[in-house]
Amino acid sequence: MLVAVALVVTGIVMSPLLTLTDIVVKGRDAVPERIILGAASDQIGQPLVALNFDAIRERLSTVTRIQSFTTEIQPPHTLVIRVVERQAIGFMAIESRWVVVDGAGVVIDTVSDKPAGIPELLGESTTDNAFSAMAETLVSLPGSVRANVASISAQTRDSVRFTLRGVGHEIVWGSPDNSAVKIVVMDRALRVADRSNGVFEIDVSAPDNIVLQPLR
Predict the structure, then answer these.
(1) CB under 8 Å to 75, separation ≥6 — which residues?
(2) Between 160 and which of 125, 132, 173, 189 could a Cys-Cys bridge form, CB atoms 3.0 to 4.6 Å apart?
(3) Spatial distance between the Cα atoms of 111 and 127, rounded to a whole number of angstroms
(4) Is the model's pLDDT at 102 over the cut of 90?
(5) In sequence order, what are the beta bridge partners of 81?
(6) Which domains does the chain show, CATH number per domain?
Protein backbone atom coordinates (compact mmCIF):
# COMPACT_ATOMS: atom_id res chain seq x y z
CA MET A 1 0.00 0.00 0.00
CA LEU A 2 2.78 2.44 0.96
CA VAL A 3 4.63 1.61 -2.24
CA ALA A 4 1.51 2.33 -4.26
CA VAL A 5 1.00 5.69 -2.55
CA ALA A 6 4.63 6.62 -3.13
CA LEU A 7 4.34 5.77 -6.80
CA VAL A 8 1.20 7.88 -7.12
CA VAL A 9 2.85 10.88 -5.41
CA THR A 10 5.95 10.54 -7.55
CA GLY A 11 3.82 10.33 -10.64
CA ILE A 12 1.99 13.52 -9.73
CA VAL A 13 5.03 15.67 -8.91
CA MET A 14 6.92 14.46 -11.98
CA SER A 15 3.95 14.74 -14.32
CA PRO A 16 3.23 17.54 -16.81
CA LEU A 17 0.64 18.80 -14.32
CA LEU A 18 3.50 20.30 -12.26
CA THR A 19 6.08 21.33 -14.83
CA LEU A 20 7.57 24.78 -15.36
CA THR A 21 5.98 26.78 -18.16
CA ASP A 22 6.12 30.36 -16.86
CA ILE A 23 8.90 32.49 -15.36
CA VAL A 24 7.91 35.77 -13.70
CA VAL A 25 10.52 38.43 -12.88
CA LYS A 26 9.88 40.99 -10.14
CA GLY A 27 11.93 43.87 -8.75
CA ARG A 28 14.06 44.58 -11.81
CA ASP A 29 14.66 48.04 -13.20
CA ALA A 30 18.03 48.50 -14.87
CA VAL A 31 18.76 44.83 -15.57
CA PRO A 32 17.11 43.72 -18.84
CA GLU A 33 14.39 41.17 -18.17
CA ARG A 34 15.73 38.91 -20.92
CA ILE A 35 18.96 38.40 -18.94
CA ILE A 36 17.09 37.22 -15.86
CA LEU A 37 14.74 35.04 -17.89
CA GLY A 38 17.72 33.60 -19.73
CA ALA A 39 19.21 32.37 -16.46
CA ALA A 40 16.30 29.97 -16.05
CA SER A 41 15.01 29.46 -19.58
CA ASP A 42 16.56 26.00 -19.91
CA GLN A 43 14.40 24.87 -16.99
CA ILE A 44 11.19 25.30 -18.99
CA GLY A 45 9.44 21.94 -19.23
CA GLN A 46 11.17 20.50 -16.17
CA PRO A 47 9.16 19.22 -13.18
CA LEU A 48 9.00 21.89 -10.49
CA VAL A 49 10.64 19.56 -7.97
CA ALA A 50 13.58 18.97 -10.31
CA LEU A 51 14.50 22.56 -11.17
CA ASN A 52 18.24 23.21 -11.11
CA PHE A 53 18.43 26.19 -8.76
CA ASP A 54 22.22 25.92 -8.54
CA ALA A 55 22.47 26.64 -12.26
CA ILE A 56 20.10 29.60 -11.98
CA ARG A 57 22.05 30.96 -9.02
CA GLU A 58 25.38 30.61 -10.82
CA ARG A 59 24.15 32.51 -13.87
CA LEU A 60 22.51 35.34 -11.96
CA SER A 61 25.57 35.75 -9.73
CA THR A 62 27.53 36.90 -12.79
CA VAL A 63 25.18 39.87 -13.32
CA THR A 64 26.98 42.67 -11.49
CA ARG A 65 23.91 44.88 -11.23
CA ILE A 66 22.03 42.24 -9.21
CA GLN A 67 22.78 42.52 -5.51
CA SER A 68 20.61 39.61 -4.41
CA PHE A 69 17.68 37.51 -5.56
CA THR A 70 15.21 34.91 -4.37
CA THR A 71 13.25 32.24 -6.19
CA GLU A 72 9.78 30.97 -5.41
CA ILE A 73 7.82 28.12 -6.94
CA GLN A 74 4.14 28.85 -7.47
CA PRO A 75 2.41 25.64 -8.57
CA PRO A 76 1.29 24.44 -10.92
CA HIS A 77 3.60 26.00 -13.53
CA THR A 78 5.33 29.17 -12.34
CA LEU A 79 8.75 30.19 -11.06
CA VAL A 80 9.02 33.70 -9.60
CA ILE A 81 12.45 35.37 -9.52
CA ARG A 82 12.65 38.45 -7.31
CA VAL A 83 15.76 40.57 -7.70
CA VAL A 84 17.25 43.41 -5.68
CA GLU A 85 19.43 45.60 -7.86
CA ARG A 86 22.50 47.49 -6.75
CA GLN A 87 21.73 51.19 -6.46
CA ALA A 88 24.13 53.76 -7.86
CA ILE A 89 25.26 56.29 -5.26
CA GLY A 90 27.55 58.21 -7.59
CA PHE A 91 30.39 58.05 -10.07
CA MET A 92 34.17 58.34 -10.03
CA ALA A 93 36.95 58.99 -12.50
CA ILE A 94 39.22 55.94 -12.40
CA GLU A 95 41.95 55.28 -14.97
CA SER A 96 40.51 57.82 -17.42
CA ARG A 97 37.05 56.24 -17.23
CA TRP A 98 33.80 57.23 -15.60
CA VAL A 99 32.62 54.40 -13.38
CA VAL A 100 29.26 54.26 -11.61
CA VAL A 101 29.46 52.65 -8.18
CA ASP A 102 27.13 51.45 -5.44
CA GLY A 103 27.53 51.93 -1.71
CA ALA A 104 29.82 48.91 -1.41
CA GLY A 105 32.18 50.23 -4.07
CA VAL A 106 31.05 47.73 -6.69
CA VAL A 107 31.38 49.13 -10.21
CA ILE A 108 27.98 48.66 -11.81
CA ASP A 109 28.61 50.56 -15.02
CA THR A 110 31.40 52.15 -17.05
CA VAL A 111 30.51 55.03 -19.36
CA SER A 112 32.32 57.30 -21.78
CA ASP A 113 30.33 60.44 -20.95
CA LYS A 114 30.28 62.05 -17.52
CA PRO A 115 27.09 60.85 -15.78
CA ALA A 116 24.42 63.38 -14.90
CA GLY A 117 22.05 63.43 -11.96
CA ILE A 118 24.24 61.55 -9.47
CA PRO A 119 27.10 62.83 -7.28
CA GLU A 120 30.74 62.69 -8.28
CA LEU A 121 32.90 61.04 -5.62
CA LEU A 122 36.25 62.80 -5.65
CA GLY A 123 38.54 59.92 -4.81
CA GLU A 124 40.94 57.47 -6.39
CA SER A 125 39.83 54.18 -4.87
CA THR A 126 36.68 52.33 -3.87
CA THR A 127 38.44 50.36 -1.14
CA ASP A 128 39.87 53.00 1.21
CA ASN A 129 38.42 54.64 4.32
CA ALA A 130 37.72 57.87 2.46
CA PHE A 131 35.44 56.10 -0.01
CA SER A 132 33.66 54.26 2.80
CA ALA A 133 33.00 57.57 4.56
CA MET A 134 31.67 59.21 1.40
CA ALA A 135 29.49 56.22 0.55
CA GLU A 136 28.11 55.93 4.07
CA THR A 137 27.26 59.62 4.07
CA LEU A 138 25.49 59.49 0.70
CA VAL A 139 23.48 56.42 1.66
CA SER A 140 22.34 58.15 4.86
CA LEU A 141 20.96 61.16 2.97
CA PRO A 142 17.30 61.25 1.89
CA GLY A 143 16.91 60.68 -1.83
CA SER A 144 15.81 64.27 -2.42
CA VAL A 145 18.97 65.58 -0.75
CA ARG A 146 21.31 63.07 -2.39
CA ALA A 147 19.96 64.07 -5.81
CA ASN A 148 21.15 67.63 -5.12
CA VAL A 149 24.72 66.65 -4.24
CA ALA A 150 27.01 67.66 -7.09
CA SER A 151 30.23 66.27 -5.64
CA ILE A 152 31.56 64.82 -2.41
CA SER A 153 35.09 64.42 -1.06
CA ALA A 154 36.96 63.12 1.96
CA GLN A 155 40.59 62.73 2.95
CA THR A 156 39.76 60.76 6.09
CA ARG A 157 36.63 59.32 7.68
CA ASP A 158 36.16 62.54 9.64
CA SER A 159 36.53 65.01 6.77
CA VAL A 160 33.55 64.42 4.49
CA ARG A 161 32.26 67.48 2.68
CA PHE A 162 30.00 67.96 -0.32
CA THR A 163 28.77 70.67 -2.67
CA LEU A 164 25.10 71.13 -3.51
CA ARG A 165 23.85 71.76 -7.01
CA GLY A 166 22.34 75.08 -7.95
CA VAL A 167 23.49 77.83 -5.59
CA GLY A 168 26.63 75.90 -4.66
CA HIS A 169 26.50 75.74 -0.87
CA GLU A 170 29.34 73.65 0.55
CA ILE A 171 28.46 71.33 3.41
CA VAL A 172 31.14 70.32 5.92
CA TRP A 173 29.81 66.99 7.17
CA GLY A 174 32.71 65.60 9.15
CA SER A 175 32.26 61.88 9.80
CA PRO A 176 29.20 59.85 8.74
CA ASP A 177 28.25 59.53 12.41
CA ASN A 178 25.06 61.21 13.67
CA SER A 179 23.83 61.67 10.11
CA ALA A 180 20.17 61.73 11.13
CA VAL A 181 20.77 64.76 13.37
CA LYS A 182 23.00 66.45 10.81
CA ILE A 183 20.30 66.13 8.15
CA VAL A 184 17.84 68.00 10.36
CA VAL A 185 20.21 70.83 11.26
CA MET A 186 21.48 71.10 7.68
CA ASP A 187 17.91 71.59 6.46
CA ARG A 188 17.43 74.42 8.94
CA ALA A 189 20.75 76.01 8.01
CA LEU A 190 19.94 75.84 4.30
CA ARG A 191 16.71 77.72 4.90
CA VAL A 192 18.67 80.49 6.62
CA ALA A 193 21.28 80.52 3.85
CA ASP A 194 18.67 80.67 1.10
CA ARG A 195 16.96 83.63 2.75
CA SER A 196 20.31 85.43 2.79
CA ASN A 197 20.70 85.16 -1.00
CA GLY A 198 24.35 84.14 -0.70
CA VAL A 199 26.58 81.11 -1.07
CA PHE A 200 27.71 79.60 2.21
CA GLU A 201 29.95 76.99 3.73
CA ILE A 202 27.69 75.25 6.23
CA ASP A 203 29.53 73.27 8.89
CA VAL A 204 27.33 70.64 10.55
CA SER A 205 30.19 68.38 11.63
CA ALA A 206 29.28 69.29 15.22
CA PRO A 207 25.48 69.43 14.88
CA ASP A 208 24.99 71.25 18.18
CA ASN A 209 27.21 74.08 16.95
CA ILE A 210 26.39 74.95 13.32
CA VAL A 211 28.65 77.44 11.56
CA LEU A 212 27.69 79.37 8.41
CA GLN A 213 30.40 81.26 6.57
CA PRO A 214 29.80 83.25 3.36
CA LEU A 215 31.77 82.02 0.35
CA ARG A 216 30.72 84.84 -1.96
Answers:
(1) 18, 48
(2) 173
(3) 20
(4) yes
(5) 25, 71
(6) 2-85 (3.10.20.310), 88-214 (3.40.50.10960)
